[in-house]
Design brief:
binds hypoxanthine; alpha/beta; 11-stranded mixed sheet; globular; 26% helix; 263 residues; Rossmann fold
Length: 263
């Protein structure tokens, strides 16, 4: 199985891949850059920087469709995304790593689908299990084998950004069952599901969300906390990539409608 990493905030560096080669991939939604390399066991890995070179693209302007399409066209089967997130849950303090299992979508202005009607028809994609359960089990086990704590399950609230949230929004999200808040989870996971990619997210909590945190939030704080914990995240990811590259059955449905032709 071919695996890919979508590196979020603070996960920019694919130097751990052997023979890493950068390449541009053209898609119907525009071009995007990836680095292709291999794990020490030889398994091929595609690395993609979600926010582009030098973290230059804000969450609401990421070309999610080009990114996911590029991975599919390179023959990727399974994707691990990383995400820096705020926490709404006192049981998931800064430094926690969480395997996301559900999302709430509060985005507003993004292209959210590959299915825009017309000749392609209307397609409603099932997202009962947005994040592959079989892959989550494997990642959790890989972390456990290294004695690295990883929380199994968390609800990721996606906001539009690029501003942080108000304390009132965070109170509302808590009432709705949110655990984590970030700006990139949707539509990435949805587009992956539409393409029949098997997708998981490892979130790293960088801060308590607005109103829970005693201080005002800054992007600098997010970057600093991420930098403190990124080695742990990389260790889990390295082990996870090896296990996800194995050929095991999972319940992720294949692409529907005209996207079926992509395999
Ligand atoms: N809110 C939204 N996105 C984030 C946060 C947050 O508190 N922390 C890291 N990414």
């Amino acid at each position: 199985m071919k695996v890919a990493v979508i590196g979020g905030t603070g996960v920019y560096d694919p130097t751990w891949l052997q023979g890493a080669q950068e390449q541009t991939v053209d898609t119907p939604y525009g071009a995007t850059r990836v680095t292709v390399g291999a794990l020490d066991g030889g398994q091929s890995v595609v690395f993609m920087n979600r926010h582009g070179l030098g973290h230059s693209v804000p969450p609401h302007q990421v070309n999610y469709r080009a990114n996911l399409w590029a991975l599919k066209s390179l023959g990727v089967d399974r994707v691990i995304a990383t995400a820096a997130v705020g926490s709404l849950n006192l049981g998931m303090p800064p430094g926690s790593m969480v395997l996301v299992d559900q999302f709430l979508d509060f985005t507003k202005s993004r292209p959210v689908t590959f299915h825009d009607g017309g000749e392609g028809g209307v397609v409603h994609t099932d997202v009962t299990e947005p994040y592959c359960p079989a892959s989550r089990d494997r990642i959790w086990q890989a972390a456990r084998d290294q004695s690295l704590p990883l929380v199994m399950g968390g609800v990721y609230v996606t906001t539009e950004g690029p501003r942080f949230e108000t304390p009132a929004e965070i109170r509302a999200f808590r009432i709705l069952g949110g655990d984590l808040v970030g700006m990139t989870g949707v539509p990435e996971v949805v587009l992956a599901r539409e393409l029949g990619l098997c997708y998981t997210t490892i979130a790293l909590v960088t801060n308590f969300a607005a109103g829970i945190s005693k201080t005002a939030l800054t992007h600098q704080e997010v970057l600093e906390v991420m930098a403190q914990h990124v080695d742990r995240l990389r260790s889990v990811m390295g082990a996870a990539l090896k296990t996800l590259a194995e050929d095991y059955p999972c319940s992720c449905p294949p692409a529907e409608g005209p996207l079926k032709v992509l395999g």
